[in-house]
Hints:
Elements: H1 2-15, H2 28-33, H3 39-60, H4 66-110, E1 117-118, E2 121-128, E3 139-145, E4 149-157, H5 161-178, H6 185-202, H7 205-208, E5 218-226, E6 231-237, E7 243-246, E8 249-252, E9 275-278, E10 284-288, H8 290-293, H9 305-311, H10 317-331, E11 340-347
Antiparallel strand pairs: 1-2, 2-11, 3-4, 4-5, 5-6, 6-9, 7-8, 7-10, 10-11
Helix pairs in contact: 1-3, 3-4, 5-6
Amino acid sequence: MPFGLVGLVTVVDVLVPPEVHLGPFLVAAPAVTASFAGLRMTAFVGAVAVLAQALVAVMRTSFNDLNHTYQIIALFLISAFAAFLAGLRERNDQRLNQLRSVAEAAQHVVMRPLPVRSGPLHIASVYLAAEDEAQLGGDLYAQARAGDGTRMIVGDVRGKGLDAIGEAADVLGAFRALAHKDTELSELVALLDTGVAANTADAHQERAETADGSETFVTAVVIEIPDASREIHLISCGHPPPLLLRGDLVIPLEAREPSPPLGLGNLLAATSTTDTFTFDVGDVLLLYTDGVIEARDPSGVFYSLPQAASACLSKNPDSLLAHLKVDLQRHAGGHLSDDAAMVAIERLDVTAAPEVVRRRPDDRQRPDQVSPGWTDFDR
């Protein structure tokens, strides 16, 4: 396009009457090039534009004509300045790409992909960050094997930005370190609460408190699903209740005595209460953060997750989350005001006859993608 612009302006400038001067329009060629190309290409286009202006001067009057001389000098200076700006932009783009690569690697370390299978469970997850081009925010989820069972946490750090990401990393690190131990679920939650409170107390004032002066805390739901018994052990720490999808039913798993959010447990002396629910073969457990149910449409109506989940014909975790992801983004008009995370867990019938299945080269999920399937593991 810049070369076409130089050619067009040159031809027209030669053909128009002598009193009309179109040479200044040649400045647009290096200016446009600087918006998408680097220093070398911008300088080359500027040089071509200067040569074209000199050609016009020779064909119309003479190279020493005062008017054309000043046009050539001005065009040269502007082209040099445009090339300088293009070089700065190119350097900044390189730095930005490096930072994005580092950030992506850090995000994968903090929010490790969930396994597609854990014992008799089929797991799928999806993460939608509110920040543009981000893959991680204040929402969190993690899974760990504990003896003959699976433990999982899904939570939401109060606040946004880097502070929320740092707090999410602390919680995930503590959960991965503690969830493997042979402890009761209530004891695990107590340790996590102590860890969050300690991090808040030891952190710098800007990290410990948000801009409005309120303390940092984490709402979370911590679950344990034994391999042998068909049940779920659940502790809710100020988090929205999970949904149990059984046939055409969508059942909220309300805690009898919800615990306070992690980091605020010192406000109450009581220990966490563990609730137990039936989790049979074919059931799907849907865990989510409040960014899902607090998403609004342009008219201000909140997103109805139970209704959307019941409308999905297939209760396979992968297709369920794929449906909910599209439906949630459609409801919010393509932009979420808060991070949103969802995890779907299905209990499989591991007593079925074994079958020969294919394995994928990569059997783990990215945090921003729905897992493509569960039939890649031997039963």
